[in-house]
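thought: fold this chain, then report.
action: predict
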Amino acid sequence: MAKFFTPAQISEFKECFSLYDKKLKGKIDSKDLITVMRCLGSSPTPGEIERHLQVHKIGKKGEVDFSTFLIMMHRQMQQEDPKSEILEAFRMTDKQKRGYIQASELRAKLTTLGEKLTNREVDELFREANIRSNGNIKYAEFTQMVTLPPVDY
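observation:
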């Protein structure tokens, strides 16, 4: 798995994994798998977790070792594509197929739906994306900007 992840990623995964290794045996309970993956920025569904466990023949009361976890994490990350998911969400709300959304409409969605942002967080996001609060946002460009990898100092 070292060829798929950077040493920094493996270290981060190990640190989080270790927090759930309650028996200090280098394993986590399979019921904690979804939590560990989500803590690391992945978004598996319960069905996806079930499939990961089935592939490795691990029962619901079984345990997952770190090397198996890395394989599961790699597969999960391969199947997730946040850019296309975000674009699809924008397209679903764009009835006229204009390719843009009003800043006020996006602010309303970001502060009231899903994992809600505060007005301050939206202001910061708009500032970083060079968006005027009364302007239109081309959602393809906006999606590109918000899905760029974070700067690693």
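thought: worth noting. The chain is about 55% helix and 10% strand.
final: tokens above.
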